[in-house]
Amino acid sequence: MKSALFSWRSGSGRARRVTVAACALLAVGAGAPAPSPTAAPPDPLRTSGTQVRLTGGAPRVPEVTALSWVVADARNGDVLAAHDAHRALPPASTLKTLFALALLPRVPEGRHRATDAELAGVGEGSSLVGVEAGRDYAVGDLWRGVFLSSGNDAVHVLSAMAGGTAAAVARMRETAEELGARDTHVVTPDGYDAPGQVSSAYDLAVFGRAGLNDPRFAEYCRTAVAKFPGRRGVYDIQNTNRLLTGALGVEAYPGAIGVKNGYTSKAGNTLIAAARRGGRTLVVTVLNPQDDTPGSVYEEARSLLDWGFDAAGRVRPVGSLEPPVAAGPPASHRPGPATEHAAAVAGDGGVGWRTALLGGCAAAVAAGATVVGARRRRARHADG
Question: Quick count: other Cβ atoms within 10 Å of Cβ 179?
Fold first, then answer.
């Protein structure tokens, strides 16, 4: 009698011993855990310091004093260079970009009459556009008050229209989570300093990029001058992003298309800047330059934009602004019989091939035991 794996001919005791030993070794191997997958390499953007991967001919990254910054391609989300990208810092009014992403879809177009209650929560010393209780406003005017004048009064009225401040904060947190912006913790919808309210250069770049893909957001953030209704008629409001307008001694940046600036005594100067040149759009974030020269946040953003356009195609990305993709199926998922069979046949390095081979060993040993038993019975019959 022959098994599929070994011969059990008469006199093959050595073969039987080898077979049993091989099967024992396989049994030990089958109980061993499968090799663990190779650990993912560390994320460069979570490493302190400046992260950049230059190739031949690429210009050096400019020296800037900001505590944290990011240069990214708005089209594909590639991060071209960064410094302490995930450092948690107060965002000031750049957080209004997240406010707009969260509430633009939830506040219907039309008109709204502002109330005292809606304006009561505006922080002392806040930037204002001039919203007055008892006056009717077009929703578009309120949004221009947010983007151009960084008006916290307009933020609070829009929040009330979307269910109140608490609801606005909750929706901002949800939106940040959906975008993969895990460094951001929202306490107030307007970016006003509050304990625990932080974001990062990385997250703000995510918000700026997402906003540029929203037509209404993109229109508001690139508007340089607009009219706003007041007690004595309409008056001009100008965008406080000086790279866009070229105001107060800062030269306008060629191709600038927004996005949002901010300042508080705790956050220092903060900025999300975007520009388009030669079919490429870059997003740059700069948080809290340590250079106290007037306009330093804009000049540091300018140098990073210039570098980004010059280095495009000559650097390898150090990260991405794309939300992380969930890894693999849930732990409760198990492959079906067909998958298990295919793995065993293919010999994919898992335990399937051991299972199949152990089954053959068991069959061979059982067959051998049957042959030996039969021969012993015949011998006893011959002696008696």
Answer: 19
Q: How many residues does the chain have?
A: 384
Contact status, residue 194 vs residue 188, Cβ threshold 8 Å: yes
Give the span between the Cα atoms of 72 and 205, in whole angstroms: 8
Q: Enumerate the active-site residues.
A: 93, 96, 150
Closest by CA position to 183, among listed 168, 204, 152: 204
The three-state secondary structure class of 119 is helix
Average pLDDT, integer, range 217-221: 98
Q: What is the pLDDT of residues 37-48, one digit of tens each?
A: 566 678 999 999
Lowest mean pLDDT: which of 65-69, 241-245, 363-367?
A: 363-367
The SS3 call for residue 81 is strand
Task: Return mean pLDDT, the chain.
Answer: 83
DSSP-assigned letters across all residues of 207-274 = HHHHHHTSHHHHHHHH--EEEEEETTEEEEEE-S-HHHH--TTPPPPTTEEEEEEEEETTTEEEEEEE
What are the phi and psi torsion angles at 233 (to 5°)? 105, -175
**The token pair that represents 209 in the structure block:** 């990029």
Please provide residue 138's backbone torsions phi and psi, each rounded to the nearest 5 degrees: -70, 140
Q: Which two tokens stand for residue 255?
A: 């191709």
Partnered with residue 238 across adjacent β-strands are 225
N-term to C-term CA, the chain: 27
pTM for the whole structure: 0.76
Answer left, alpha or beta for residue 195, where phi above 0 means left and psi between -120 and 50 means alpha.
beta
Query: Distance of CA 14 to CAs 113, 357, 364, 365, Å?
Result: 97, 20, 14, 13
**Token pair in block for residue 153:** 């009064």
Torsion of CA 280, 286, 292, 294, to 10 degrees: 40
User: What's the gap between Cα 193 and its chain centre?
Assistant: 24
Closest by alpha carbon to 8, among 20, 355, 381, 353? 20
